[in-house]
Amino acid sequence: MTERRTLPGFASRPADPERWVKAPDKPAAASLFTARLTIDVTPALRARLKVAAFQRGMTVADMLRALLAREFPDNPGDMP
């Protein structure tokens, strides 16, 4: 009769499971940002933000962080 062929699984397991399970180290800059700010914008504004960030060679998040830092500079008397 016909011999049944064994096919490999959907995904193969990594050779080193410990390395596979461990999460990569976060970059140092990621630990600086401990809060997330969510805003609602129109799709048109979102598109303009993405185009402006792309033209400046940066991400939207980095561009908005710079904008907020410029508009709201640190004041020595403010709470941390």
UniProtKB/TrEMBL annotation:
Residues 1-21 are annotated as: Disordered. It comes from the Bacteria. GO terms for biological process: regulation of DNA-templated transcription. It holds the Pfam family RHH_10. This is Plasmid segregation centromere-binding protein ParG. It comes from Gluconacetobacter dulcium.
